[in-house]
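2024-03-11 09:14:02 DEBUG pipeline.ingest accepted 1 chain
2024-03-11 09:14:02 DEBUG pipeline.ingest length=399
2024-03-11 09:14:03 DEBUG pipeline.predict start
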Amino acid sequence: MNDEKVPFLDLVTAHRSLQDEFVDVLKTALSTAGFIGGPMVQGFEQEFAQFCDSKFCIGVGSGTDALRFALIAAGIQPGDTVVTVPNTFIATTEAISQAGASPDFVDIDERTYNMDPGKLRQYLEKDCSWDADAKRVFHKRTGKPVTAVVPVHLYGQIADMDPILDLASQYNLKVIEDACQAHGAEYFSKKEDRWRKAGSMGHASAFSFYPGKNLGALGEAGAITTDDDKLAQTCRLLRDHGQSKKYFHDIEGYNGRLDAIQAGFLRAKLRHLKKWNGQRREIAERYNKLFATVEGDVTLPYQPDWSRSVYHIYAVRVVDRAQLQKKLDEAGIGTGIHYPIALHLAKAYEGLGSRAGDFPVAEKAVSQVLSLPMFPDLTSCQQDRVVTAVLKSLAVISG
């Protein structure tokens, strides 16, 4: 039993228990030929909007579609600059570029790995200038207007939104939450004196339902949430070739619709998401307790008192990540790296002119973070194996 491998992610166990519900979804689709749009999509949209405490949900083909459409619908124009963080999946910056804008970066908080509001303030005050007539802020070096900010709720924890929203209000910026890893995460807004859900605070938010997410489809899928009626309607047009009705195209759009079958699968799984998120929190708490005696060697995930993370990823930091990952692989422990390269140093963005050292906190983090096994069905025995293997490997590495 002790020699069994511990997978980084187990998508089989949870899906096996839901097979009957999935078959019902397929039977409904086959009996009605409702494969695109229709009641299954609308039903999921209503229920996910309610889950996120948002007025509207627009189902789309992927998380990338969601972020791209949200930016376009929010009014981001070709030539604009949109600010985000360098330690995220490239879909964040792809969506910005594909909306016609240029991505720019600010560094992250050392402990949460999310956007540092202080660095955002510094960027807006020192690197940019305010044009009172245009009611816009312009980047001093490029001359481009900075029109939006995309905070990424990394690893299942919401960025510190109060100061980000305050800065956005001060500088007339749209805020599009990248909530692709944060389904059900919560943030305590001191300004409003209440808990807020991921996807309910910005002008709009993007979610991915890639299979490995806390709420994952059985294929590709995504969604936009917003309280803005006009923005929601524009997103509906964008996802379906700009059609207000069949063959009547109000704008030029995209093919970014959510498949009805995937919506049905997501609707079935959404009923279990609160329980699964609770299990993830319990697993994270147990990891924290098991690692408590070696905190000097392993930097554990940090959760501020204003956060309720849903632990999409349980990422630790170690100095010699490569050796630890190698030792854990030899011990049959699955791991992941999210993400190995800060995007400002990626080949795809050489044209932005960034250099090593521009965002030192993010650069250090991406060289040290290692994601350990995390999924709702992870057992205590499996966790014990993971922690034992980590401690043993670190002892060998440190000599």
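2024-03-11 09:14:41 DEBUG pipeline.report The first helix runs from residue 12 to 17.
2024-03-11 09:14:41 DEBUG pipeline.predict end
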